[in-house]
Amino acid sequence: MTVRRLVTLAAFTAIALIIHVVEALVSLPVPIPGVKLGLANIVTLFMLFAPRGKLRAADILAVLLCRILLGAIFAGNPMALAYSLAGGLLAIAAQMVTRRFVAEKQIWACGAMGGIFHNIGQILAAIVITGTPAIAVYLPMLIIAGIITGVFTGLIAQLTVKRLSKYMSKV
Amino acid sequence: MKSNRFWIILFSFVALVCAAVLLAIGSGSSSGGTAYIYWHGELEGIIELDAISESRTITLKGGNGINIIEAERGRIRVAEADCSNSLCVRQGWVSGGLTPIVCLPNGLVIRIEGGSGVDGVVG
Questions:
Q1: DSSP letter assigned to residue B49
Q2: Taking all residues of chain A, what is their mean pLDDT, rounded to a whole number?
Q3: How many CB atoms lie within 10 A of CB B9?
Q4: Gap from B123 CA to chain A (nearest CA, Å)
Q5: Which is it for the CA torsion B51, B57, B61, B65, positive or negative?
Q6: Which of A91, A98, B22, B54 lies at 20 to 30 Å from A155 by C-alpha?
Q7: How many CB atoms are closer than 10 A to CB A31?
Q8: ∠ CA A86-A122-B11 to the nearest 5 degrees?
Q9: Minimal CA–CA distance to A99: which of A56, A163, A136, A35?
Q10: Which residue among A101, A130, A140 sits closest to B41, beta carbon to beta carbon?
Q11: DSSP labels, A46-65
């Protein structure tokens, strides 16, 4: 790993972590457990789309894992780690697959896929951790919420890529 | 798939299916029945909601926090919790239906079964 790559990934991790921590301080006025905007996903989407071919899947995964691990430490809640991991890994997998099929004008769709699968991952984790399959009744509600929040963060990522990707230096 | 229309149709369809499932769950709700209280995945208590004459409270304490559950005739709620967002408290009284009360930070699930839905109507 070159120094340039290391610094680039560290910067992305820092940006994602700040967004993650700030977002945790704000709770949405929605009475559904686990619904949040997922703003830190903007960084994942930016890495997936902006420097096409320059960043590897392993790099993007590394930034995600570092952000989740450090985010759980900052939040001081070890239980959050399991939920974030399940949601984050499933979302990034869905987004990496979706990325192959979309152009830069459909980043919002990639974000929505991420939102949907993030929430599916969290429900699966909740079912396993609490041993209660009945939690699955939240799935339709959380899929709808995932589409809405995913389109929102995806659109932000789309605008960010459009405006900022030209400033991205080679890694 | 490199068109916005494809994705708009796909997500609208998924959202519609989910909304339909939500409506089906909502209309299947009933009242009363039996509340199963799970604490960290283990069955901690069973309350026959229809058999309660006066309200009672149950305090659950564990590694992560405290939940105080209040049960009355035909309904149950989380009265107090020290979890980060208190969504379980904001859910309020629950008297049936398929949606359980869940407090993920503290590992609490209250599931309600049976009750006087359509099955309870006797001619």
A1: G
A2: 89
A3: 11
A4: 31
A5: positive
A6: B22
A7: 10
A8: 110
A9: A56
A10: A130
A11: HHHHTTTTTS-HHHHHHHHH
pLDDT confidence of A33, banded at 50, 70, 90? low
Contact A43, A16 (CB under 8 A): yes
| Cβ within 8 Å of A, B 1-40 | 1-4, 7, 10-11, 14-15, 17-19, 21-22, 25, 38, 40
Tens of pLDDT along A8-17? 999 999 999 9
> How many residues comprise chain B?
123
B110: β partners = B37, B101
Mutate to test the interface with B, among A143, A152, A155 (most CBs of B within 10 A): A143
- Judged against a pLDDT cut of 50, whether residue B119 lies above it is answered with no
- The three-point CA angle A117-A137-A144 to 5° equals 45
**pLDDT number for residue B45:** 86
Whether residues B15 and A147 touch (CB distance < 8 A) is answered with yes
Phi, psi of B59, rounded to the nearest 5 degrees: -110, 125
| CA gap B64, B40 in Å, rounded | 10
In chain A, alpha helices (H)? 3-25, 41-49, 57-75, 78-99, 107-130, 139-164
Structure ipTM: 0.86
- Rounded to an integer, what distance in angstroms lies between the CA atom of residue A88 and that of residue A94? 10
C-alpha distance from residue B121 to each of A101, B48, B116 (Å): 53, 18, 7
